[in-house]
Structures are given as C-alpha cells and as structure tokens.
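Narrative of activities, Objective 1.

The group set out to show that a structural description can be obtained from nothing but a protein's sequence at a throughput compatible with the screening campaign. Below is one input-output pair from the validation batch, recorded exactly as produced.
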Amino acid sequence: MSATKIGFTLQPLDEVLKQAELPETGSLVERVYQLLREKIINLSLSPEVPLPEKEIAAILNVSKTPVREALIRLANDRLVNIVPKSGSYVSAISVDRYLEACFIRVQLEGGCVRRLAEKGLSMAEEVHLRSLVSQQKQLLEDASGQYEDFFLADEAFHKTLFQYAGLPGAWTLLNGAQAEIDRVRHLKIRQGILRSRAVIEEHTKIIQAIVDRSPDSAEAVMVYHIGSVDDQMLSMSENPQFLQTIESFNLLLTAQSKGRSKIQ
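Output recorded for this entry:
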C-alpha cells in the first residue's frame, strides 16, 4: 500500500509569525510561548522547521531572552528539539508520544468527570456547558466556519469540566501533555478525517451523565469519547495508511526544510 499523498507546502517562518499577534495577557515569555505553541500544534510551524531565536525576536519585536525561555518551555513539552551548537527545531510528530498522551488524557479526563458527577453541577454550570455544545453545533452548521473555531470550542468544553470539578491544575497538566494529540488531530483534519457530529453527541451524553449524578456512566462516556490507548492502537493498526501519512508528513517537511536552507 502506498503512502497517502499530502498536499502541504512549508511556510517561511516570517510568513507564519507576521500573520499572528501575541496574546494580550500573561508575561512576555508566556505570550511568546503560547503563540509558538499554537502555531506548532496547528502545523503552521511544521516538523523540523528551524526556530532561530534572533529571527523570531525580530519578527515579534521582542528581545531574544523571552524567545529563548519560551523555546525551553516548548522543549519541555517535547514540541521543540534544542540541538547544541545547531539551534532549535520543531519536533517530528511521534506515534509513541501520541499514545502516551492518550493514556494520560483518559486517566485525567475520566477521573475529572467521575468527580464532577459525584460533586454535581449547579444550574448555572449545566446551562453554561450546554451553551458550549450549542456553540459547537452552530459552528458546525456554519458552512463558512473554520474548523479551528470548532477545535477551540471543543477545548473550552473540556477545560470547563476541569474548572467545575475544582481541578484547574490537572487541566494545566493535561494541556501540556496532550500537545501531540492535538497535532495528530490537525493532521487528520488536513486529510479530511473529521468526527464533528459525533463529538457533539458525545459531549451531550457526558453532560447528561454528570447531571444524572452517575460517575460510572460519566467516566464510560468520556473514555468512549476520547478513545482508550487500546482503541487508538487498534484504530492505527486498522488504518496503516494513516501511520504512513505521519511518516510521510515528517519526511516531506524535513526534505522541504533542507531544500529551502540550501537555497538560502
């Protein structure tokens, strides 16, 4: 079976960052970190792309120090490789890191909704969660809407569950761990692999299980929604072309990056 062809062209670093704006809140290091992280996760900054401190600082109109510190944080997230005497590069997508992140996500999100079902929701919390699902429905029905908006609404739903469960620190931990999941999700989007309607139905079932004060049901629905590590491994084994897509994507961007560096 031949690998899936990927229609993707490497964007120059300045084009990616000049089109973006630093977040308005947080320290300068945090703002640079969040911007670079977002662009890496949505694949605007692709595997093996060089991330020179001086160039990034010039584009963002900041000093090199916050850029350096942001890159160190991204390296801790395993989204960036810092090579001594060479520089910093966006990490390749890793299936092993993806499956590890799936394991972490199942444990944390399953435990979150179990605790929330035991604790219960206030009427205002239930209304807010249902409004987030309604927002996703509207984005799905809007033909002109971008999937990035749907992705952000999905993230807001899961973050809110942790807030209502009184576990904001667990969300911070999960958000750092699941970066590889999000990169794979964006790669699937580029391949036209979407399950938006199923996501909305599952979010609705999660809310109902919490409202019904059924911890077992809430956890079971969440695990089904996310997909256990075994489910993810089975899915990949049944779709070897997607594994080939990940490998081809990493190799394609590496080749394009090397070709561009020779031209420069």
